[in-house]
Amino acid sequence: MSDYDIPTLKEEIDRETVDQVLALDVDKYKYGFETIIESEKAPKGLNEDIVRFISAKKNEPEWMLEWRLDAFRRWLTLNEPTWARVSYPKIDFQDQYYYSAPKSTSGPKSLDEVDPELLRTYEKLGIPLSEQKILAGVQDANGTASTPFSGNVAVDAVFDSVSVVTTFREELAKHGIIFCSISEAVREHPDLVKKYLGSVVPVTDNFYATLNSAVFTDGSFVYIPKGVRCPMELSTYFRINEKNTGQFERTLIIAEEGSYVSYLEGCTAPMRDEHQLHAAVVELVALDDAEIKYSTVQNWYPGDKNGKGGIYNFVTKRGDCRGKNSKISWTQVETGSAITWKYPSCILRGDGSRGEFYSIAISNGHQQVDSGTKMIHLGKNTSSRIISKGIAAGFSDNTYRGQVSAHRRATNARNFTQCDSLLIGDRCGAHTVPYIESRNSSVVFEHEATTSKISDDQMFYCLQRGLSEEEAVALIVNGFVRDVLQQLPMEFMVETQKLIGISLEGSVG
Amino acid sequence: MNVQTPVRLSAAEEAFVGQLESAGASAAAERFRIIGLPTRRVESYHYTDLKTLLSAVPPLARAAKGASAPVIDIPGAYRIVIANGEVQNSGTAPNGVIVSKVAGATLTTRDDVLMRLNSALVSESVSVELTGHVDAVVHIDRRMEGDAAHVQSGAKIAFAAGTKATVIETVSGSDAAHMGNAGSYVSVGEGAEVTHILVDLSARQATHFASVEYRLAANAKFKSVVVNAGANLARAQIFAEFTGEGTHGDFYGLNLVDGEQHKDITLDVTHGVPHTTSSELYKQIARGRGKAVFQGKINVARDAQKTDAKMMMQGLLLSDEAEILAKPELEIFADDVVCGHGATCGDLDDTWLFYLMSRGIPRAEAETMLIRGFLAEIVDAVEAEHVAQALGDIVEVWLGKAV
User: Fold this and answer.
1) A14 at interface of B, judged by CB pairs closer than 8 A
2) Which of B151, B214, B235, B340 is the most exposed place for a label (fewest CB within 10 A)?
């Protein structure tokens, strides 16, 4: 690089940093706006009538209602889990809304009739990959003109609790792929739903999963037929909008023999004061030789700098490698939410199956993260890999909690776990709680964990090359999480690198 | 909103409540009645679910009539015998050692069921104070004698500032289904260089619990070694707290498991002040249908900057029906620290076996060599020669039954 370029470049970087800082102050949550759309909601509280109301709203068949009611009755007998390293005031489950749908006069397929406020929301969300063009493309598709796909992402947008529009449906249908809302799947593909719903996360799996089973409002359903490689990344944007509305998403992905799918999930939520409850359930089923890649970027409102407000994120995610040589890979970037309670897991049932978990969990302010994974080795020659990077700053607590277990018949199971924690500042905490359980002598498990701060050497090196302290931290942290970043689909990588900088804003100096 | 059914007490729980009441500890009995024995839902007992594992409790021990032969004999050691919880008169103490009896138990109040039972049921404990360079090894020999009995015992060991000494505690006794619960409170003074060893050699049918609390003052060099080599069900819990700067602690442990045995080592190290370091090395070996459990937690307090702690757990599984369960935890609140842990679990390495066998060593012998090598790291950590020899013998006995 010539001498001439350096000052210009430097100036540009400086300006960019200043802009970023201005735009993304800790208090001014970027996605903290509220869209004013009339919404239709059930009365506050939870009882059998509310469950019936949700089921009726969704035009569900009788069996689905029974399933929900059964879950609800079981939920009444369960206690809230307290083992996670998080603390929050007791949730009053009767003080929540369990259903809220954006008001819409016609079927969701016609974008013309969708509230323009809603479209503006998408605009503000800055959904990547020319989301706006895709949405416009759908409008044009009413005619015969073919829609040039500007990106390879199919989006099932979830606005509060109802899927408003599903794009790329027809393109996917050509391959026999079903990508629709779970409510639609219940109505149109009852056999598949009956067969797989609750088969990975049983109704009574845990308190929040059971609650979700009773009141889930929407979510995605994906079915990839035998031998099909899904031609694009499938994506859902979750968005919690209505005040005091718990969002209970239910996602079910089935990959038939020899198929492949990559699924992206990204989340933002508007700023508000009341704590919001989110209890999603995600079930993945991979049959023989199938592969599912599930990526999440979670950036919900973390609460303000005093720890007020923010989302409670109590999620049950589990993948079942049911077939031989199947593979499930979880990648997550957790930067938002006041409380995260989330353990994407793999049940390695099929012989030769493989599970992966890559995680970046960043906590700042008063956030509390208790996240990790479970790798349950049941089949022979199963393998798993866990790479977890936790970064704690501010007054936050960041816990990795993971279980690796091999059962009697899991001959030659292998696991490698690495969990590293980075502490920024002396008011935060980083914790590691792995459970290692081996019940077969041919199993080889390796686990390593480290906790440290950014070394003075690294900082000195960056500072003496003219980086500011904040830039240096962002650079080093991005290096720290590099192993995981590389696992993310291209679409998420750029966004994530930016997010990391944003999340650590105000953590130094 | 919830419709819960009240918890019913198991037979073992009823027995504990009865024993606490008969000992006049009515408050403890009442508390026990409410809380009961821990299940796997209690995090610190996650792999040792006492509610399931304990089916019966033998009657509270009475004074022992006669004693069995010492289970290990350390030449030159000064021996203090506690038989069925009663401190026996021992001979003249070596220079720098003062032995006395103290009323009641020695442990602090910690929210742990075994420690609470110990505190409520121990009526007298032994107190050992050590000062200066104590050449003789002090051997606290706890016995469970006669018919199956529930034996509670306590010891308080105080190493004065600048002391250099080695103390070994063993548990052994008659071949009966005893239940032992031993408490030790160990304080290490400033600048002391001290080794404390805890060995369980109780009968095959016995159950044995041991709880040790260490308080480590400034600039000390401390070593703790725990070996679980007896009992069908054993749990050794170690709570160490660094209370003075400049102290280093080495923590070693060995779980030797076979048959239907279930052995647990639970470690909780708290770095409460800045500039302390520790290293933890625990090895577990399991064959038959045995279960080896290790839980290790390193806590670093907010102010404990410059802590350096490294914990390692290595497990060797010799049979497909045995289990190794581990939970190495870090809980860190200070940012300028270097902490890490590692855990491995596997079988003997085939390539190592092949190497030895290709040199004409029969398979069984090659396996024994490798296992001995695996375990040696713990035994070699003990500097006192006769004590290291005694621990080596324990390993050899286990190996003799091994391959």
Assistant:
1) no
2) B340
